[in-house]
Amino acid sequence: MKHCLLFISLFLALNLQAQYTWMGKRQTNSSIVLDPSEIQMFGTIATVLNQPINEYQYIPFAFGASKSIVSKLIDNNRTWEMVAEFGVFTQFEWTTIDGKQQRNLLNADYKAAFSYVRKQAFSTFRVRFFHVSTHLGDDYIFRNALESHTFNNRNYEQIDFTYYRNLRPNWRVYAGLGSVVRPNIKRRPLSYQIGSQREFLKEKKQFALSCGINLQGFQETSFTPNVKTAFGVAYIQEDNEEPIRLLLEFYSGHLPYSQKEKETIDWLGIGLYFYI
């Protein structure tokens, strides 16, 4: 009896191991590199177009990573996985005040997400739940002499659905809809997102031209499109589906970070983007 139970336990363990992979490598790709709040690694040095270039630079950067919790390969064209992500988005300004250069911390956003991602042939579907919160930086608080709580409605939870379609091996389009789910928050809930990302890759080459565009709108800001577009070079990695990108980028729209999101900004900059 003991030998029978041992055999059954071993068989079940091997069978589960064959069907599911726990805490392994990512099996799907749900990246949106030009989403300003995408959980990834990036850093940008930008000039704000209504500011003198020699007096003011805007520097957003992020530390973020994703990890597959569990995945299952159904067949060669179908797989699904559960993914956890966490990222910190920080924004600095490099400015001249009273003839002296200052590098001031403006804000930090924190984002944690859990996703179900399913790949089927040339299509990928993602259902994601995330929490985001935003916190003004010490330098901003001190410089503006803030002594009390300020209204902040960028502290919420959201569920969204995104559909990706691979038109070619290195060309993807996507569209998504989302809604805030935290009750009793003074924030209009709906949002949308559409975009495209493409690498012009020649066979057996490690470098490619990269370009893309991302449009997002939030009911909180009357669905006004926030546009980010970029062009540059990509270094193709053998062990990562997403390349390392060095991009010349342009953003126009509402501020994508902090509780000051109803303010608008236009920036032109150079950014480095990659995933871990």
TrEMBL record:
<feature type="signal peptide">
    <location>
        <begin position="1"/>
        <end position="18"/>
    </location>
</feature>
<dbReference type="InterPro" id="IPR009599">
    <property type="entry name" value="DUF1207"/>
</dbReference>
<protein>
    <submittedName>
        <fullName>DUF1207 domain-containing protein</fullName>
    </submittedName>
</protein>
<dbReference type="Pfam" id="PF06727">
    <property type="entry name" value="DUF1207"/>
</dbReference>
<keyword id="KW-0732">Signal</keyword>
